[in-house]
Amino acid sequence: MLRVVSLALVLIALALPAAAAQRLALVIGNNGYDEVPALLKAVSDAEAVSGTLDDQGFEVITVLDAPRREMNRRISEFTGRLQPGDTALVFFAGHGVEIDGENYLLPTDIVAPTSGDRDFIKGESIALSRLLDRVRATGARTTIAIIDACRDNPFEASTGRSIGGTRGLGRIAAPEGTFVMFSAGAGQLALDRLSDADTDANSVFTRALLPRLRQPGLELRDLVSDLRVEVRDLARTQNHAQFPAYYDELLGSFYFNPASSAPEEAVAEAPAPTPAPAPQSSIRADFELARGLGTVAAYEAFLARYADQSDDFTVLLAQSLLDELKGTEEVAALPPQTPETPAPAPEAAPDPRAIMRETQAALNALGCSAGGADGVAGPRTRAAFARFLGAQSGTDLTVDALGSPAALAALTAEGVKRCPVVAAAPAPSGPTITGTWSYSAKCPLFIRVNGTIRLTQRGSGVFTGPIRDSLGQSGTTTARLNGLSITASNDWGNVTETWRATLTPDGRGYSGSSSSGCTFTANLN
Q1: Terminal Cα-to-Cα distance of the chain (whole angstroms)
Q2: CB atoms within 10 A of CB 131
């Protein structure tokens, strides 16, 4: 009886419309600095981004040429309007500087000190990590920060000493549920224009960003992947290195302009408006209700409510559980002596990104060193596939087949040849750091990072191997051992981090610090 009542209640709950979470944006553009070099395009960048976000359904708070007090006031207005489950976006165009591992956004009334007073600049600026923490504290489900502040250090010419990095901003550890994108990689300079003849109103980064914010059905990671390539290629026309960096701790997918069905040419009446997607928290709560009851009716009610979000993982899982439940009930209803094999479900169309991830995993398994299996065909993946093809004989595949089902089939075929590897040097008689190391690091802003490094000796005192951390980053470590002293660098793809450590006398541990301000210890597995 209680189960029947509970089922009735969940069916009523699932029939109610889901509350629509708001999408709120804070867009700041600062051109007119009082005591540091003025900028030309930050305000026009902010105005263009504001208009585009407004077209995509965001409520936009636009702040132009703001001193510190005004920036803080508008930030408080922004966080005060955010509610749990909302989407929050922050866009900043203007001057920024990295000091002691923290990125600071500069208001227009920032005072250029007469000496390298780092603490003064910290107190007069907006710390990016603290801004993101304030947004996160509101309960916003999704936080996106787009920072176009990777210009020359504004204090370099006005002080006797350098304050902060020479140019650009530094790496950041994004909190869970946050996606942060910079207009250039750590330490790189973002271009405002391509040449003196370039009359575009927007910076190189923003002009590549704007059309992608409007493109229907473009998921955030795909947007960033395309954007980074375009900005990099535009910068290369000026023999300049600019490769936008991003830090992804986002939960699930995100679309600025979700794809909508094309309208029919002739209809008797206008179709009903498409409801806004339900917040992920609502979907999960309703799913737990349905799964707790575990009945066909409960799952069907859940799927009917979220029919417009059929590609959501939770909805796909509910459909799978429903199919399994129906199959169990059908089998139970059949006579024991006459079981029937259910018809196979139709095969879903292959997902190109999933194929690429499987391809990268297969390349790594064959020793081809494709890097992280992120589904993006970067230079390292393409080079790994080329090495794989070079190791095979009689194949008809070319490098252009990368990412295709045929290429994946070739990689997983029986008898396929592994990529050639460089033989490791003979083990030395003295200390060595060959092996797999597990490390734990304490970084600025109370961030803790764990990871592994697998090192192989490549020469006298030289060791290299892959590194992977709990933030989802992967790269390559090159280390040199001199007695018990280790000097090393981690190549993360678009930024290089250096570190020093001391090996314990027994050779099973080391401890040290890195150029990013982290201290760490490591143990041999």
Answers
A1: 56
A2: 22
DSSP code string of 416-477: PPPPP-PPPPPPPSS----EEEEEEEEEGGGEEEEEEEEEEEEETTEEEEEEEETTS-EEEE
Give the count of alpha carbons within 13 A of 79, CB side only. Answer: 15
Q: Between 3.40.50.150, 3.40.50.1460, 3.30.40.10, 3.40.470.10, what CATH number should domain 23-248 receive?
A: 3.40.50.1460
Quickly tell me which residue has 């169309």 as its tokens: 349
CA distance 380 to 382: 5
What's the rounded Cα separation, in Å, for the pair 370 and 366? 10
d(CA 366, CA 47): 50
Q: Following DSSP, what letter does each residue of 67-78 receive, concatenated?
A: -HHHHHHHHHHH
Strand partners, 246: 181
Spatial CA neighbour of 128 closest among 109, 113, 150? 150
Could you count the other beta carbons within 10 Å of the beta carbon of residue 156? Answer: 17
Q: Copy the structure tokens of residue 373.
A: 């299996």
Digit-by-digit pLDDT tens for the chain (525 residues) are 434 444 444 444 444 444 457 999 999 999 999 888 889 899 999 999 999 999 999 999 999 999 999 999 999 999 999 998 899 999 999 998 888 778 889 999 998 766 556 788 888 899 998 999 899 888 888 999 999 986 556 665 443 223 344 444 444 555 577 899 999 887 788 888 888 888 899 999 999 999 999 999 999 999 999 999 999 999 899 898 888 888 888 878 899 998 763 333 333 344 444 445 555 556 777 777 777 667 888 888 888 888 888 777 778 878 888 888 887 666 555 565 555 555 565 555 667 888 888 888 888 888 888 877 777 888 888 888 888 888 887 788 888 888 888 888 888 888 888 888 645 444 445 789 999 999 988 876 567 788 899 999 988 889 999 998 887 788 899 999 998 999 999 887 777 888 999 999 888 999 999 887 888 999 998
Residues of the chain with CATH 2.40.128.120: 435-524
User: Where does 435-524 sit in CATH, by number?
Assistant: 2.40.128.120
E strand intervals along 227-331? 245-248
> How far apart are the C-alpha atoms of 399 and 410, rounded to whole Å?
13
Using alpha carbons only, what angle is made at residue 252 by residues 250 and 258, rounded to the nearest 5 degrees?
Answer: 110
**Pairing state of beta strands 23-29 and 435-443?**
unpaired
Sequence ranges of the chain with CATH classification 3.40.50.1460:
23-248
Q: How far apart are CA 273 and CA 219, in angstroms?
A: 22
**Cβ within 8 Å of residue 236, ≥6 positions away:** none
Q: Contact 202/189 with Cβ under 8 angstroms?
A: no
